[in-house]
Amino acid sequence: MYTIGIDVGGTSIKAGLVREGKIIYKCSKDTDRLGGADKLVEDIAYVVDEIMKSNEITKEEIKSIGVGIPGVVAKSGEVTCVNLGLKNELLSKKIQDKFENIKVVVENDATVAAVAEHEYGSMKGYDIGVMLTLGTGVGGGIIINGKPFSGAHGVGSELGHVMISSNYYDCNCGNNGCFETFCSATAIIKYAQKLISENRESIILGYAENNIKNITARMVFDAYREEDSVAGEVVNRFKKYLAMGIVSIIHSIDPEVISIGGGVSNASDIVLDGLSQMVNDNVIFNGAGIPDIVIAEFKNDAGILGASAL
Amino acid sequence: MYTIGIDVGGTSIKAGLVREGKIIYKCSKDTDRLGGADKLVEDIAYVVDEIMKSNEITKEEIKSIGVGIPGVVAKSGEVTCVNLGLKNELLSKKIQDKFENIKVVVENDATVAAVAEHEYGSMKGYDIGVMLTLGTGVGGGIIINGKPFSGAHGVGSELGHVMISSNYYDCNCGNNGCFETFCSATAIIKYAQKLISENRESIILGYAENNIKNITARMVFDAYREEDSVAGEVVNRFKKYLAMGIVSIIHSIDPEVISIGGGVSNASDIVLDGLSQMVNDNVIFNGAGIPDIVIAEFKNDAGILGASAL
What we know:
2 copies of one chain form a homodimer. With 310 residues, the first copy, chain A, is of the alpha/beta class. The first copy, chain A, folds into 2 domains: 2-117 and 301-308, Nucleotidyltransferase, domain 5; 125-295, Nucleotidyltransferase, domain 5, CATH 3.30.420.40. Chain A has helices at residues 36-55, 91-98, 109-120, 180-183, 185-197, 203-207, 217-225, 229-250, 268-272, 275-282, 302-308; strands spanning 2-8, 12-19, 22-30, 62-69, 72-73, 79-81, 86-89, 103-108, 129-134, 138-144, 147-149, 257-261, 292-295. In chain A, strand 5 (72-73) and strand 6 form a beta hairpin. Chain A is globular, with a radius of gyration of 20 Å. The two termini of chain A are 15 Å apart. The relative contact order of chain A is 0.15. Chains A and B meet through strand 10 and helix 8 of A and strand 10 and helix 8 of B. Chains A, B: It comes from Romboutsia weinsteinii. Chains A, B: This is ROK family protein.
């Protein structure tokens, strides 16, 4: 038997055929962001058909279809996803209608990534785990008793919007002090731009061809390795709040493991350096140990693998 | 069969004999804060013996002894409690040694209060619940899948030390911005003292016999009812951060119910007024509903009842 994992992103719908935890075939299709739920279901059906045809397999050989979407999946199954123009859509039912007898599960994409890491990657063998994806925003996925946990209304594990301090700019969500305004790639870029626009000298500006709009988180990490002082300030601020955010997560969920993924985690040497010590120094009680803090194993394939394991 | 619940506090050890969810006998003993673990175990044995003698029951009729303590219970069973001078003490084993064949369970006191509310009170019938006790500090108790949850190392549910914003004074734990520095009775008192010491006029000062050291949270709430402007500012600040803290809890745990207890909850009319609306307005997605926000049912008996149900 096979499972199919589908990773619906803002730019593409990636799908994979999975057997025994390995992706054996992949295909994708551009996301039609304006097409609404019906077009999305049609496109998902298209990639599933494409997988079956190319691999000469029948519906009967597919155990389940898992779908990760960048939005909130309410306990009722209703999906809301601002970026894709979905509001309270019963997505899993609509997909199910196309593929009778195949189990269909739809989940939030960060939760899906947590499932991938828990089933096959950095959180394997742990019972309670938290996944943080540090990218454009900060995503969160929670595993409790070995299972994905997203709370009573599907809004739990939105860890990027846990507030941790006050910040000099508001979050897109309208609140101030959200974790993602300190620890996303966007937050890193914004703070570098702020310091440089205050006329601080930095090699980052050269990397960005003298246009602060071109700055990326990677440039900041590269400059940090060259001991650039602006990069030092930006990275130290990022690390301080990352530690504080993790301490807050410990004081609520206290997982066995925290896995850090997303684009920012590519600078794993910088992200992990001293981080556990900072966390250990700031939890209210560390006598019983703190969570293992690790880097996520899967990058682009986490969505397909996790969705296939839902 | 009976169960015994013991609530170890900083000033007294309260014990109760419980049958079918009702306390049928109570007794207590002063806490010997300097006596260490052995004295505490001796005192617990004393109140248990006193319960058995006064009610003419034998060890065989007692199913379990539950103990709530104001500290951290590590997954190993080791108890650390700064206020009682306990560090990594295997308290349940020591108590067990005194009462062979009776099951002994030791838990954090806020978790115990959550168990009481979940078994018999305001959170009954809910699967995922969070208890917030707003007193001298802010305590937290979490119920997941109907069971108390305190994470992998016993430090989860220390919700008073989740950071939510930056504050004008540091928390006792050494961090800045902890929930309890905004929403405990202590936080309310401190902010009223701060405003009054800045020469703001307030009837609170009269209530406190012209000594700001006498100010209590209750005086602030009483003055709020009299439309005192300082009290208004203090209460509005408290409510704003209470809503933010609850929003953060939703973005991580997203419970079905949040129960507010502790001394501050005595002003339930003021605490609840508009609170759900503020929370609803600030969660990133409210289309699927937000938790019910309620006032805890048990005051002084929560510790005994909850411990007896562990």
